[in-house]
Amino acid sequence: MKVFCTGATGFVGAHTALALLAAGHETRLLVRDQKAARSWFEGRGRHIERFVTVDIRDQTALEQAMAGCDAVFHAAAAVSLDPRRAREMYDTHVCATKAVLGAASALGIGDLPYVSSVIALFHPGASRVDE
Length: 131
Prior knowledge:
With 131 residues, the chain is α/β, with parallel strands linked by helices. Helix content is 42%, strand content 12%. The protein has one domain: NAD(P)-binding Rossmann-like Domain (Rossmann fold, 3-Layer(aba) Sandwich). The protein is built from 5 helices and 4 strands. It has a 4-stranded parallel sheet with strand order 3-2-1-4, with helices on both faces. Strand 1, helix 1 and strand 2 form a beta-alpha-beta unit.
């Protein structure tokens, strides 16, 4: 299975990508910084030929990047605990998630696990949110 992973240099996304690779899946990894991503994965014995760096809020760019994938794992985030950046963080999470879901839907990709810190940061104590 070919899996498109967002947030592939974050804690959850990077370790999920490693687990997918170890299980024999092909990955396409969306990262902000290719040099840092390459260093992180090579430091764990994984050479990644190509990383994807597109604006995660751009659905059209995501559709092009996701083309040919069977599933999407969405773990990308921008995190700050500074209350002055709360609106920016919330908007970034919401716009990115809408674009990722929209791109996956447009391509007919139905398998899309999503992990987020939005609940922890903006709704502490809320119960689990799922489909």
